[in-house]
């Protein structure tokens, strides 16, 4: 795939968008090369499905191509793209029935202690359940910042909230997750 968003600057992406608005396919291919991997990763984190994530990323880039003239230069291209991906992924999740956690097979490490594997699987299920129990905006903030590695500035732009509001979402989410997962915390040494 591409070199990732760190291989470009906002000014480079701005220039590409102006060219894309004029129908420049080479500029579109370059923008797609730069951002496709992260778009797929973001969609996969939201949907949990690599195949659906690929479809969402393709749809997002199709929208970039068809709506390039609508893009406003005061917004970063990457932020605009992440917002498109996030909206498409959330729309997809609203339309489909969430898969039961028991239906998703866990990878098996033949060298792993069965007790450790059982604990890891239980913790993974508990974490997914705890994330699913968060309000949608808190879960999105956690996934963007703590799972996908977005900076707070990027995540706040994607979620269309201030950085202060994002921090508040993260604080509340961490508090809820800590409470939900307290049974898995290591015992305090006395």
From TrEMBL:
<dbReference type="InterPro" id="IPR014284">
    <property type="entry name" value="RNA_pol_sigma-70_dom"/>
</dbReference>
<dbReference type="GO" id="GO:0006352">
    <property type="term" value="P:DNA-templated transcription initiation"/>
</dbReference>
<dbReference type="Pfam" id="PF04542">
    <property type="entry name" value="Sigma70_r2"/>
</dbReference>
<dbReference type="Pfam" id="PF08281">
    <property type="entry name" value="Sigma70_r4_2"/>
</dbReference>
<dbReference type="GO" id="GO:0003677">
    <property type="term" value="F:DNA binding"/>
</dbReference>
<protein>
    <recommendedName>
        <fullName>RNA polymerase sigma factor</fullName>
    </recommendedName>
</protein>
<feature type="domain" description="RNA polymerase sigma factor 70 region 4 type 2">
    <location>
        <begin position="125"/>
        <end position="177"/>
    </location>
</feature>
<feature type="domain" description="RNA polymerase sigma-70 region 2">
    <location>
        <begin position="31"/>
        <end position="97"/>
    </location>
</feature>
<dbReference type="InterPro" id="IPR007627">
    <property type="entry name" value="RNA_pol_sigma70_r2"/>
</dbReference>
<keyword id="KW-0804">Transcription</keyword>
<dbReference type="InterPro" id="IPR000838">
    <property type="entry name" value="RNA_pol_sigma70_ECF_CS"/>
</dbReference>
<keyword id="KW-0805">Transcription regulation</keyword>
<dbReference type="GO" id="GO:0016987">
    <property type="term" value="F:sigma factor activity"/>
</dbReference>
<keyword id="KW-0238">DNA-binding</keyword>
<dbReference type="InterPro" id="IPR013325">
    <property type="entry name" value="RNA_pol_sigma_r2"/>
</dbReference>
<comment type="similarity">
    <text>Belongs to the sigma-70 factor family. ECF subfamily.</text>
</comment>
<dbReference type="InterPro" id="IPR036388">
    <property type="entry name" value="WH-like_DNA-bd_sf"/>
</dbReference>
<dbReference type="InterPro" id="IPR013324">
    <property type="entry name" value="RNA_pol_sigma_r3/r4-like"/>
</dbReference>
<dbReference type="InterPro" id="IPR039425">
    <property type="entry name" value="RNA_pol_sigma-70-like"/>
</dbReference>
<keyword id="KW-0731">Sigma factor</keyword>
<dbReference type="InterPro" id="IPR013249">
    <property type="entry name" value="RNA_pol_sigma70_r4_t2"/>
</dbReference>
């Amino acid at each position: 795939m591409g070199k990732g968003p760190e291989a470009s600057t906002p000014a480079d992406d701005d220039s590409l968008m102006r060219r894309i608005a004029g129908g420049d396919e080479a500029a579109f291919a370059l923008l797609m090369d730069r951002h496709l991997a992260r778009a797929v990763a973001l969609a996969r984190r939201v949907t949990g499905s690599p195949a659906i994530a690929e479809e969402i990323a393709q749809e997002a880039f199709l929208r970039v191509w068809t709506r390039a003239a609508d893009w406003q230069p005061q917004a970063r291209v990457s932020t605009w793209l992440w917002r498109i991906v996030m909206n498409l992924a959330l729309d997809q999740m609203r339309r489909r029935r969430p898969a039961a956690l028991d239906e998703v097979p866990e990878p098996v490490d033949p060298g792993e202690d069965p007790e450790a594997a059982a604990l890891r699987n239980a913790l993974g299920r508990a974490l997914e359940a705890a994330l699913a129990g968060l309000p949608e905006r808190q879960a999105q903030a956690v996934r963007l910042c703590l799972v996908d590695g977005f900076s707070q500035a990027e995540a706040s732009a994607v979620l269309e909230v201030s950085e202060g509001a994002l921090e508040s979402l993260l604080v509340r989410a961490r508090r809820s997750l800590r409470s939900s997962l307290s049974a898995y915390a290591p015992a305090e040494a006395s």
